[in-house]
């Protein structure tokens, strides 16, 4: 975690490194043979939180901005029919 304060801009900037590996079982389908879902989720990246402008009274900030400054790594392990999305793709060169 990295924290920066900028008195001129009246803001606090927080950079949080996130690494989430979660086993999740979500299945959706119309029958037992036609099922689709997600088995696990992996998320890695830096989440930026900006508290600005700062004020002297509670809640101490007027706005909270939350975003990823760079695209995070997101990997979903599919199950059922959506498992077809896990098939490696080959590039065709001319």
From TrEMBL:
It comes from Xenopus laevis (African clawed frog). Keywords: Membrane, Transmembrane, Transmembrane helix. It comes from the Eukaryota. The lineage of its organism: Eukaryota, Metazoa, Chordata, Craniata, Vertebrata. One of its GO terms (cellular component) is endoplasmic reticulum membrane. The gene is LOC121403714. Signal peptide: none annotated. This is Extended synaptotagmin-3-like. The keyword Transferase does not apply. InterPro entries: Extended_Synaptotagmin, Synaptotagmin_SMP. One of its GO terms (molecular function) is phosphatidylinositol binding. Residues 8-89 form the Synaptotagmin SMP domain.
């Amino acid at each position: 975690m990295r924290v920066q304060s900028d008195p001129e801009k009246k803001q606090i900037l927080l950079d949080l490194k996130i690494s989430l590996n979660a086993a999740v079982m979500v299945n959706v389908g119309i029958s037992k043979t036609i099922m689709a879902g997600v088995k696990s989720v992996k998320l890695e990246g830096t989440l930026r939180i900006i508290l600005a402008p700062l004020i002297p009274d509670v809640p101490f900030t007027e706005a909270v901005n939350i975003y990823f400054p760079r695209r995070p790594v997101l990997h979903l392990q599919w199950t059922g029919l959506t498992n077809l999305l896990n098939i490696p793709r080959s590039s065709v060169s001319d």
